[in-house]
Amino acid sequence: MTLLVSCPFHCFKWLHCFNNSYTFLKFSGTVFFVQHLHMSVFSQSFSPCGRFLAAGNNYGEIAVFSLSSALSPDATDLSQKPILTFTAHEGPVFSLLSTDSHLLSAGNGEVSAWSWAELIKRVIHNLHFSLFSFVFSFISIPPLQENSLVIGGGDNNIHIMDLESGIFKSVLQGHTDYIHCLSVREREGEILSGGEDGAVRIWDCRTGHSVHCIEVFKYEDCARPQYGKWISCLTTDSDWMLCGGGPSLSLWHLRSMSPTSVFPLSGCQRQATFYQDMILSVGEGQFVSHCLMGGEVKAQIPCTPHSLNTLALNLNSTEHRVLTVGGSSHQIDVFANLYYRSFSLSF
Amino acid sequence: MSDALKKRKSKVVRSETGTPEGKRGRGDGEQEVRVYSEEVELDGSDPAEDYRQYKLTCKALAKLMNEIQELKANGAKDGCAEVEQKRMQSCIHFMSLKKLNRLAHMRLKRGRDQTHEGKQRVDVLHLQLQNLLYEVMHMQKEISKCLEFKSKHEEIDLVSIDEFNKEAPPEISRISITKDDPHQLTLARLDWELEQRKRLAEKYKESLSSKEKIQKSIEVKKEHLSSLQPGLNAIMQASLPVQEYLSMPFEQTQKQIEIARHLPPSLYVLLVQANAYGQACDKSLSVSISGDVDEAKALAKPPDDSQDDDSGDSDAEEEQEKTKRRRPTTGGQLDDKRREMLKRHPLSLCLDLKCKGTHTHTHNGSVLHLFFYYLMNLNIMTVKAKVSTATDLTGAISAGELLNSDTLLNCLYANDQGRETPNPANRYQFDKVGISVFGDYVAELGHPYQWVQRLGGLQFPSETPEVCDSLSASHMESTMKLLRGRVQSRLALHKQFSSLEHSIVPVSSECQHLFPTKVLSRLSRWTAITHHEYTNLSFTRHVSDAGLARETDLFFLAVVERGTARLQAAVVLNPRYPEISPLFALSLSWKGERAGRSDDNLRAIESEVNVFKSELQGPRPGHQLLTNQVARLCVCLDVYLETDGQDDSVEGPREFPREKMCLRTARGPNRLKPFKYNHPQGFFSHR
Lengths: 347, 687
Hints:
GO biological process, one term (chain B): mRNA export from nucleus
Pfam families (chain B): FmiP_Thoc5
Number of domains of chain A: 1
Distance between the termini of chain A: 31 Å
CATH architecture of chain A: 7 Propeller
CATH topology of chain A: Methylamine Dehydrogenase, Chain H
Shape of chain B: elongated
Radius of gyration of chain B: 68 Å
Organism (chain B): Esox lucius (Northern pike)
Structural class of chain B: alpha+beta
Distance between the termini of chain B: 189 Å
Number of helices of chain B: 22
Largest sheet of chain A: 6 strands, antiparallel
Oligomer: heterodimer
Radius of gyration of chain A: 19 Å
Number of strands of chain A: 31
Family (chain B): Belongs to the THOC5 family.
Region (Disordered) (chain B): 1-33, 298-338
C-alpha cells in the first residue's frame, strides 16, 4: 500500500508511538459560533465500509459522521452532527485518506493514523507516525507498492515512506514550489504531481526520476494569467489526466501529452474527479460543476459553502453512494443524487 | 145586654182598683169591710179545676144552644118560656165563662210578675259573683308580681358566705341572727359589701392624688431634660468637625440607620449587603439613601389605613370596571391606574462605585452612580446608572453610546437586558391596565435587571430554568466586580475610540510584539452605526444569520485604507466586552468588491481577528483587545495586498511592493496567504 502526501518545507523528525488520548473538544457560548463562522473543510474520506465519513477542517479537527444514520429515513438534526470530533493536528487537516483499516491524516508537519474500528466506537487513539515541520496538503492512493506512503510536501519534494518501518525510501526532487496535489497511475507505476510552480511532473516510482514535466500555463488554451500558474487539482484515469488551478481545468491525453479539451469554468478548480462518463469538479464558486469529456459544462449544482475545497464520492458502499463536498463553511453538503443537494452535515 | 156589660165593667174596674185596699183590708182584718176579692179567689182556685169547669160550661152551653136551635126549628115563638128559660140558663153559663176568663188573665199577670221578680234576683247574684272573680284575679296578679320582683342586690357580686363569716366583724355578721335566716344573712352580707366598697373608694381617691403628685414631678423633670436638649445639640454640632477629622461618621451612620428603617425590605437588604461588602472588601463602595423620608414614613405608618386604601382601591377598581364597561375608551383613568401601578417607593438607594483606572488608562476618580428604586406595586427593583468622570470625556463621537446610562449595564450577565420585568406576576397586572411592554417605561423607571433583583433578595422563577449557583451574599461581590469591570472597560473603550476616531490605533508597549514595526495600512475612519445599518451591510449577513448581532450590541464601522485598497470592517461589540470579544466582518474594495464570504483570504483575515484573539488580549482584563484587533487587521491587510501579485514576472512596478517576509505566499487548496506574525524573527507564516 502506498500513500501520497504533498507538503511544504524541508526538515523532518521522527516520533514513534504516541498513544495520546484526546478529550472531546468542548466549545461554549459564542466561541462555538465564531469558530463555526470561520471554519473551512479541507479534506474528506469515507470509511472502508462506506458507512462513515471523516472530514478535516482548518482548526486541525477531524469529525466523523455516520452516513447510515444521516441517510436513514428517520434522520433528525442530531444525526447530521458528527458522532465524534477530535483535534488531530495543530494546523489545518489538509488531507485525509482511508486504507483498509486506518484513517490517515496529514496535518501541520505530521501524519497520523487512526483506526477506523476505534473511531467508530468513538475511541481516539493515535497510531505512530511521522512528524515533519511542514504541512501536508494532499493524499491519494497508489496501490502498486505495498505498505508505502507517498508524501508531497512543503519542501517542494515528494517523499516515499515505508509504512512498516517508517523509513523514507526515496525522495523525488524537481518541483520548485509547494506541491498541491498528487496522483498515481497504478498500471504504469507512475506518480503525478502538481504544484504552485505550475508544472505537472510525472515520476517513475522505481527509478525516482521525473519522466515528464508539463508546464500547463504555457499552453495558450489553458493559461489564465489573471489567476496565476499553479496547479491545484490533478487526477488520472488510465491514459487521461485532469488538471487545473490557475490555468483552466483541462483534460489531457497522457500518451500524446496534449490537452484534448479545456473546460470553460470560471474560478480556480481545487478538486476534480472522473465519475462514469462525467467529470465532477469543485473550486471557487458556490457550485459543483458537471462536465462532459468533450469540454462542455453540463450543469452547475448549487451548494452551501461559497467556495469548495474538497469533493468525495463514496464508492465503498452501494447503499450509501453519495457525493459530499466541503469548503468555506462548517457544513458539508451531501448529494444522494448528483443533481441536487440532499442535506448538509454540520461540524 | 149592653147594660149588663156596663155593670160588669164597672164591677171589674172597681175590683181592680180595690185590690190593694182589699189586701190592706185583709191585713187589717176581716171584720172591717167584707170586700169581694177575686184575687183571693184566685189564690184558692186551682187552674186545672178552672180548666175543667170551663170545659163543662162550654159543653153545657153548647147543649143549651142545640136545644134552643131545636126548639126554634120546631117553630117555637120568641118569648116562649121554654126558650126563655133556656136563654136564662145559657146567660148564667156565659157569666161563669167570663169569670173564668178573668181569672185566667189575672193568673197570667201574676205569673209574669213572679218571673220578673225571680229574674232580678238572679241578676243581682250574678253581678256579685263577677265582682268576686275579678277580685280573685287581681289578687293572683299581684301575687305573681311580687313573686317576680328582682332585687338589685342579686346583681352585686358578694363575697362568699364562708369568707363573709370569716372576715366580717361580728357587729355586721351577727351570727346569732343570720345563722338561720337567709334574709338577714343576705342583708348582713350587703352591709359588709357596702362597707368594703366605701373603704376601696377611699383608697382610690388616695391613689389618684398620689398619681397626680407623681405626674407633676415627672413634668418637672421632663422640663428639665428638654431644657438640656439645645445644649446637647450645640455640643453635637460642635463635635461634627471632630468626627469628620477623625473619620468616624457616627452621626451620619446613625441617621442613615434611622432612615433605613423606612426602606422597603428589598432596598434594605441591598443597603445592608452593600454596606457590609463595602466595609469588608471594597472601601471604594459607598451607599446613601435619598428621597422623601416623610413620605416614606407616611407610607409605612398606618397599616390600617393602607388596608383601607386597598379596599378603596378595589372599590375604585370595581368602579373603574363599571365605567370601563360603559365607556371603554376612557383613557384618563387608565393612565392614572398605570401611574399608580408603576409607582416607586419614595426612598431610593444611591450606590457609588469608585473605579480606579487601569494602569494604562489613568481615569482616576471616575465614579459609577447606581440608583436603585423599588416599584411598590410590581414588587421589583430597578436601577439607573450614571458615570461621572474626573476628566472631560467629550470628543469621541462614536463613543456616545458607551457611557449611555440606558445601555451601560446591558447584559452584565448573559442575556440580561433589563427590558422585561422579571416578576411573572406583573404580566397580569399589566394586562389589567393595558401595559403591553415594560420596556416602554424603562427609560423613566430604570432597568429591572435580574442581578438587581438578586442583590435585593428578590427571586422570581424564570421561564427558562437556569442553573444559578451564585446567589445572595457571594452575588454581591461578583456583581460589584462585574460593574467595576464594565465601567473600566467602557472608559478604556472611550479613550480608545477617541484615538481611533483620529485614525490612530493605540498599541501599548506590552502588545508591541504582536505586530511588525512597519504597518502601512492605516485606519481612516471609525464610526458608530446602528443595528439597522449594520444588518443592511451586505457583507455582514453571515454574522446576522448566525445570531451574533443582537440589538443590544454596539455596532461600528471601521475603514482601513492603503493606497487604492479600502477595507471596510463592520464590528459587533457585545456589551460584555471584553469577556465576549468583538466580531469583525470584512469587505475589501480593491480591483472590485470582495467580501469575507466569497474571498477565502478575507475570510482567513476575519478568523485571524475573530478566532485567534486570545493572543491579542494584552494585559488582563483585556481592555486592549479591540485596538489590537484593529491593529492586526491593518497588518493582515498589508500582507493581503503585498502578496496578491499573481505573477511575479509580469507587470512593471507593483502598487504594493512586498516588504513583509513570508515563508510561503500560498498554502492549502484555497491558497491562503500567511497572516500569522512571528514575533522575534519578524516573518509571516500560516497558522
